[in-house]
Amino acid sequence: MGEKMIGERMLEALNKQINEELYSSYLYLSMSAWFESIGLKGFANWMNIQAKEEIDHAMKFYDYIISRGGKVHLSEIKEPPHEWQSPLHAFEETLKHEQHITKCINDLVEIAEEEKDRATFNLLQWFIDEQIEEEANDEEIINKLRMIGESGNGIFMLDRELATRVYTPLKEEK
Ligand code: FEO
């Protein structure tokens, strides 16, 4: 016998997380558009790839719900902000958002434990690791932006660095 059908409470929480991940994508795509509007194409590239990764996260939950015989329920995605005060401000908001997502994942882990849902608990381990990586990436860029301060040359160099980020679909990851 395989894993039993997913419980109602767990299912509702996972569907809510699909919305959180899609909002994350929307937020980073909005940041990408803002970076484009101020001529920072490397920053825009980084955020554009982040937006794609968030869709992958949403789809990981989506595929998982279906694999457990559950029903995916998509809900309204709220409007993201459209402007930030500076690149540093945008990345500070990114880190803040990821800390919120980490809390969401931890809450899901708690529900999985309470519901004794081992399959969901296992799925969430991947997201725990991913959140550590995402927060660390954001912190690294924030540190660089703080060191750079107002230096136009520093921003230009970082923009060139962030332009090198490439998108890797989830299934190709090890
Ligand atoms: Fe889906 Fe940025 O965590």
Bound molecules: MU-OXO-diiron
The CATH class: Mainly Alpha
Low-confidence stretches: none
Rg over alpha carbons: 18 Å
Major sheet: none
End-to-end Cα distance, whole Å, is 29 Å
CATH H-level name... which superfamily? Answer: Ferritin, core subunit, four-helix bundle
Describe this structure in words.
This protein is mainly α and about 170 residues long. It has helices at about 10-35, 40-65, 85-115, 120-150, 150-160. It has one domain (about 10-75, about 85-160): Ferritin, core subunit, four-helix bundle (Ferritin). Helix content is about 75%, strand content about 0%. The protein is elongated and about 55 Å long. The two termini are about 30 Å apart. The mean pLDDT is about 95. Bound molecules: MU-OXO-diiron. MU-OXO-diiron binds near residues 21 and 57. MU-OXO-diiron binds near residues 21, 57 and 101.
